[in-house]
Amino acid sequence: MTAIHHEVHAACAPERVWALLADLEAVQRYNPGVRRAAIEGPQRTGVGARRSCDLLPKGRVVERVTLWEDGRALGLEVAESDWPIRFMRWETRVEPQGSGARITQSLEYRLKFGPLGWLLDRVVMKRKLTATLDAVFASLVRNAESVASAQLSPGSD
Fold first, then answer.
1. pTM for this structure?
2. Where along the chain do its domains lie?
3. Closest CA to 38 of 47, 48, 28
C-alpha cells in the first residue's frame, strides 16, 4: 500500500474550504482533472453519498463518502474506476490555523498487477499522483480564498 500526505494553508476561514469540500459536485471547480462531477442517487451529503466524475482527458470514476464530520473532515473511496487500482481512499481535514485554515489529506492506494504494479507505482504513479494532488490543493486554496475575498469586497452581496 502506498500513502501520500498533503498539508496546505488557506488564508480564509475553514468554513470556506469546508463549503467547497462538502459540495461534492464542486470538485469540478478545483480539480483540474475533473471535467464534470454529479451526485449519484438521492443522498447529497454524509456517509454513503456518491459522486461520479468524468475525467480529463478521458475516463470516469465513482467515489463514495466514507467519513463525514460536518465542517471538519471528509473521507472518500473509489467505488468504480477505469484506473489500474485495487483500492484508493483518502481523508481530508480542515481546521482553524491562525487567521486561516489548515488543510490536510492522507491518501492510501494499491495498484493492480502484483509486482509489476508495485514497480509501476515506484517509477511513475506515486510521483504523478503527488503532482496532481499538488495542483488540486493549490486550486482548492485559490477557490476558497477567492470566495472569501469576493465576500469582503466593497459592493459585493
1. 0.91
2. 2-152
3. 28
Tens digit of each residue's pLDDT (9 = 90 or more) over 85-113: 999 999 999 999 999 999 999 999 999 99
What CATH number does the domain located at 2-152 have?
Answer: 3.30.530.20
Identify any residues that bridge with 52 across adjacent strands, giving them in sequence order: 38, 62
Sole residue written with cell 480564509: 12
Enter the C-alpha cell of residue 56. 480529463
The radius of gyration of the chain from alpha carbons, rounded to an integer in Å, stands at 16
The answer to whether residues 149 and 142 touch, using CB atoms and an 8 Å cutoff, is no
Question: What is d(CA 134, CA 125) in angstroms, rounded to the nearest whole number?
Answer: 14
Q: Considering only CA atoms, which of 38, 58, 132 is closest in space to residue 88? A: 132
- Which residue's entry shows cell 482533472? 33
